[in-house]
Amino acid sequence: MPDDLVITRDLAYGPDAAHRYDVFAPIDAKGLPVLVFWHGGGWTNGYKEFTGFMASQVARLNMVLVAPTYRLAPDYPMPAPIDDCRAMLAHLVAHGSEHGIDATRMYLSGHSAGGHLAMMTALQPDALEAAGVAATSIRGCLPISGILDLHHTSPAPDSLDDRVYTAVLSDRYDDAVMSPISWTRGNRVPMRLTYGENDSARVILSNRRIARLLAAQPASSTLTMRAGMTHFDTHLALRDPADQWYADLDQLVRNTDS
Asked: I want to staple 50 with a disulfide (CB 3.0 to 4.6 A). Which of 39, 97, 150, 187 is the partner?
């Protein structure tokens, strides 16, 4: 990590061992917008350390990067990880200023399962308000290769689609209510969705379908297909400071940060 970052690791935002987050802030950060980025891993594995490589690029945009983890299935099925996302944001409302964060200017993102969690958090303003987070503080959401529709009519045994029903959901009939595609109505959070040309069929279909629904809502939305990229390429491409995703994030902040 470069010397121009203040890095604080393994902070607690709740009582569980999984309620931890890392902060990557520019030196002398004060009142900066924050990018909260949730890791992927199919809701059953993954680490906040998957995200740290983005820190320098985010700092160059004069933002703070927060990389949380969350409770994982099958020990903690849905909605536990979604509850954790709200708890993380509520913690930033109370303590973000300690790291130079203006918690009224939050941008949510994540890869794969993390993209699902970011979008579920952004699309449920009433639940955010109940957790102590003003819905208006969510200025944008940028899911990367997000799994945005959990429903599957006949998942193949031992596939990720099957794991959703056997390990991730508390009840198999919660597949719709735990899907971002079910919560788009009236959306007022600007959305910037990204997926790979060679992404999984589930990711491609759910992104294309939800983009049509979002286009009919009050907030702006875009859908970007990354040519030639696989499910994991869409995140690993962000190792490049010149990647277009950072320019899109910067433009979104400029458009909404007022």
From this structure: 39
